[in-house]
Specification:
The chain is of the alpha+beta class. The protein has a single domain, classed as Ribonuclease Z/Hydroxyacylglutathione hydrolase-like (Metallo-beta-lactamase, Chain A). Helices cover 26% and strands 28% of the residues. It has seven helices and 13 strands. Strand 8 and strand 9 form a beta hairpin. InterPro entries: MBL_Glyoxalase_II, Metallo-B-lactamas, RibonucZ/Hydroxyglut_hydro. One of its GO terms (molecular function) is hydrolase activity. Keywords: Hydrolase, Metal-binding, Zinc.
Amino acid sequence: MLQYLTIPVTPFQQNCSLIWDDQSLQAAVVDPGGDLEVLLDAVAKLGLKLEQIWITHAHVDHAAGTAELAERLGLPIIGPHPGDQFWIDRLAASAQSYGFPPATAFTPTRWLQDCDTVTLGSHTLQVRHCPGHTPGHVVFHSPEIKRAFVGDVLFAGSIGRTDFPMGNHEDLINAIVQRLWPMGDDTVFIPGHGPESTFGRERKSNPYVGGT
């Protein structure tokens, strides 16, 4: 069975998630935006074997720690979609602008496309390309445990911002309706910030996409 632990990191309280196989303890980290010592302490306490870095999108609060973590532990970087090359290239400037520790750009070991899969031990998660917040944003979905790690596409009661460079509101709404809702109303999603919710709850009550 897959397990996960969400750990808010950086001054932006970005939800970084550790995902692991409870038998083999093979693990991936989703969006290591910073506070790497906090993350690595959690890995050690849980006895996990951290093997991969998965990136939903390359905004600084989600990706600033990626290059350092990959280099320190020799980990592959999986994702995002190539549409986020622009944001990867801007990581150093973004970190300086927002007062983050120095960050460097990285080259993903593997770019992701819509309908790709990622594997963790004996488990497979589905990848959906969900542009709008950024052009290369992806989501990781585990039908097995009915969980989706959605980054900044959707929040409890809100949606991702689209006023950043290369954001697109129409693309974001289409991604939510066409690619998230079919995962099922009972699927719990882990957003990039704030509390978890379900797709069913957001379909009913979210003021931006409710009723869609």
